[in-house]
Write a structure and sequence with these properties.
Elements lengths: L1 H20 L8 H27 L3 H10 L3 H15 L7 H10 L4 H8 L9 H8 L7 H14 L3 H15 L5 H17 L3 H16 L10 E3 L5 E3 L17
Antiparallel strand pairs: 1-2
Length: 251
Amino acid sequence: MRILTTIAAVLLPLVLHAQEAEPKPQDTGPVETYRVLEDAFRRAQIAFGAGYQEAAKAGAEAAQEYLRTTPRPEAEFTARFRAGAERLAGEPEAVPFLVWLLQNDAERAPAHAKALFGVHVKSPELVRAVQALRWAWRIEPAERLALLDRAVELSPHDTVRHRALHARAEVRMTERDASTREAAKRDFESVIEASRDAQLVKEARADLFELENLQIGMIAPDIEGEDLDGVPFKLSDYRGKVVVLDFWGDW
C-alpha cells in the first residue's frame, strides 16, 4: 500500500501538469479548433508510445499488459472529432474532422466516407480523404470504387482527380477479373500522363509495373547479380528448377 501511495504521489502531479499543458480549444473558429484538437491527439499518441516503450523495458509480458489495460488515444479523441463533425455538418470546415474520422474511426468509416464524397465531393481537401479511403478496409471494395468514381467525375481539382484515379486503380488491381485489371491499367496510365505530382507519378509507374509483371502465374523478371563467391549469375539460368528468392534489408 505504501508503494502504491508513493507512486500515486509521484504520478499525480505529472498527470495534472499534462492536463494543464494541453491547450484548451477556444471559440476562435472551426479551423483553429481542429488544429488544437489534432495537436492534442498527436501529443497523446506520443505519450501512449512512450508509455509502451517504458513498459517494454520490463519485458514482453509487461508490454502486452500495457496494451491490454491502457486505452489508446483514439478511444478518447474519436468522440471529440465526431462532435466537431456533427456541429459543422454540411459546412466546408467539417472536412478535416471527417477525414480524421475516416482514418481513425473504423466503426463508422462508411458513414464518414459517404459524407466526404457526397456533400464535400468538390472540396480541395478531399485529396486527403482519397488517400485515407485506400486503407479503409471496413468499406467494401465496390463501395470504395463507387466513391472514387464520384471524385473522378465531380471534383474540379486535378490533384483530387489524379489521386482518386490512382486509388481506384489500386483497388481494381487486386481483382482477378481481366476487364477490371485492364481498367486499373488505364487509370495508372492516365495518372502517369496527366499528373504533375512527381511522387504520384512515381507511385503509379511502380504500381503499373507490378500489375504488368509481378502477378501470380507470370514469368518473374530476370535478376542479375553475384553469388556469395562473386560469380555472376542470372535468375533465368535456373529456369525449370525450383528457386527460393529471399529479399531482405538492414535498416
